[in-house]
Recover the amino acids of this structure.
């Protein structure tokens, strides 16, 4: 049983890193079309929900801090696009 728990914890600890790399991809895709940006916006909301779920486990929070630091400027960018679409 101990081995199973360790494997699960290791797998869960990788998720914040994966999310961080997803945000690097989002930064690269800033110049793509609006439809792709909307899809990425939805993915961002999902990843934030995943992080909220992850925080219930014992994690090293430095990854999460890194995630939110990089995502702050991206959030502003995406909310502006979303607002423009709603206004039009």
């Amino acid at each position: 049983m101990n081995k199973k728990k360790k494997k699960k914890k290791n797998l869960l600890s990788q998720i914040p890193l994966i999310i961080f790399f997803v945000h690097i991809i989002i930064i690269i895709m800033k110049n793509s079309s609006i439809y792709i940006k909307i899809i990425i916006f939805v993915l961002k909301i999902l990843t934030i929900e995943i992080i909220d779920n992850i925080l219930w486990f014992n994690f090293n929070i430095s990854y999460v801090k890194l995630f939110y630091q990089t995502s702050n400027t991206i959030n502003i960018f995406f909310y502006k696009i979303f607002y423009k679409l709603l206004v039009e």
